[in-house]
Amino acid sequence: QxxxxxxxxxxxxxxxxxxxxxxxxxxxxxxxxxxxYRQAPGKQRELVASIGSGGSINYGDSVKGRFTISRDNAKxxxxxxxxxxxxxxxxxxxxxxxxxxxxxxxxxxVTVSS
Length: 114
Known about the structure:
114 residues, four-stranded antiparallel β-sheet, seven-stranded mixed β-sheet
């Protein structure tokens, strides 16, 4: 079992920045992939960014060049630095890990006002 606790969401104006954090606990040594997804009401959950066990990083096309994912293994924490935010980035952001099974955090709301 892996437990995920997200923080850092909130309200920001377009062009602003936010940093999301996700702390993992439990069988963290089994984590293969850790990352962030987002979902708007009525839409499918989409990849924002992820880090594989070998350090490979993937970004969703809509956030490339604006968002940066990083991982602090000592703190079992993954971060998502979001810059140049746009109103269309408004979503609930979910932390996700793959550790045999896929686990999800509870989600944190990000709202970008125009």
